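Troubleshooting: if your tokenizer reports a length mismatch, compare your output against this known-good record of 515 residues.
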Amino acid sequence: MSDETFDVAIIGYGPTGVTAANLLGAMGHRVLVVEREADIYSRARAISTDEEVLRIWQTTGLVDRLKEDMLPERTTAFVDADQRILGSVYPESKGHGHPPQSFIYQPALEQVLRDGVDRYPNVDIRLQHDSLKVRDTGGVVELLLHDIRQDALVHASARYVIACDGGSSPTRGSLGIGFDGTTYEDRWVVIDTKMKKEWPNHDFLRFHCDPARPAVDCPTPLGHHRWEFPILPGEDEAALVSDEGVWRLLAGHGITPDNVDILRAVVYSHHVRFASQWRRGRIFLAGDAAHVMPPWIGQGMAAGVRDAANLCWKLDAVLRGQLDVAVLDSYETERKPHVREVTKRAVLVGRIITHRRTRTAKLRDLMLRLVNRSPRVMIGVQGRLWIPDANYADSWNGGRSHDAVGHKIPQPTVIDDHGMDRLLDDALPSGWVILHTGNAPTDAAWNATATVIRVAAAGAAPAEGAVVDRDGTLHAWFDSHGAATVVLRPDRFVYDATAESALMPCPLRPMGAVA
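Known-good structure output:
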């Protein structure tokens, strides 16, 4: 490899790494991607994603293509041992402009994202390269790689490293960073299938709350379907993943060789773990390298994509000299509490599904049926169990304690200055943006570094420097937070908000030397 120092090296090319490569590639940075495997992992792991993650992928310009291979807004049902519905979950939109929940087929999704990275000649992809060692010298990070194809050692260097190398992260291990938490005793057989003949409710995600053997079955796009079963005490793992064992498990749910072809069956353990540090100098952990959670609300992959979105704009600002390096400390400060809350909810949903004691299961079934009778109560319960709002309560900002700070602004369809209907993020320029509903701020520092855009009321004529709030969503959001002006970071979280025209001091410097 040449003596060039990359801006960022990404170790691991799964969903987190490939999202980071797209984001940093579009920002124009010189990026090195290091991936041990020769191709995309063929087994589907993640099975769903949410609207905020789709909004992140929207910034890469790939979301429409990604959505072609997704199943949006399918019913999620909790069913008893006799397949009767105990309760149903219908995720409510948080206003990000995409379906609240979409089922995915991960290998196809990763292929689209990798094809997206191919747009950027500034991103150097090194497949079949293993990262053996990283060493932060203070000015750069030196990487020792093993070129598996040539069986040769390769040296590289980068100003920053993002390690997205999975739950067993060699990078985290080599840095001596702890990975504290729990591995559950229960192990699960995961069966991926290709559908041949449909069956009733095949397009539902169903949590089978059967104390004898809980199970999950889930539709996935492109004609696939997944099943998950716990291994019960005394059972032989090898026997359960054999052809005979797999068909015996599926037969219990009425599935025969007429319905599906078996693609693969593997055994998984569920974990709840968090890295004790997500940053060591110029090296960052992201995705499963920083945190792992049970799969019950489909947020493992999503959490990693959120990590990439949070970290990449900050690295961009530091590399360009816009922000002091201290902003990078806010990556863990912002992301870790949200991941912990998501994980807590995933654990709780898992406990609801997997109760094994008959008496407790009967009480659970009764409670779910009662809750399901009242839509209002069900919505309230769902709000405490399902994916929490994107909100960085301990947000990096200038210090103002305003209700809107740390929230991500909703993304309705607006009318741009050319009179075209567009999702808000597509109508805004990249980078820092100031939105206002009244008088434009007059702060010279902000005006020199951020784009100022007026949010015009519904019915207004398109105009330069404005977006028209077509259905009033943005004005209602501004009013609900008592704001007339908000400063949006590049990831569209609110940095500052005020009912007056005065803003907090601008933290941005004119772009200078790379840090």
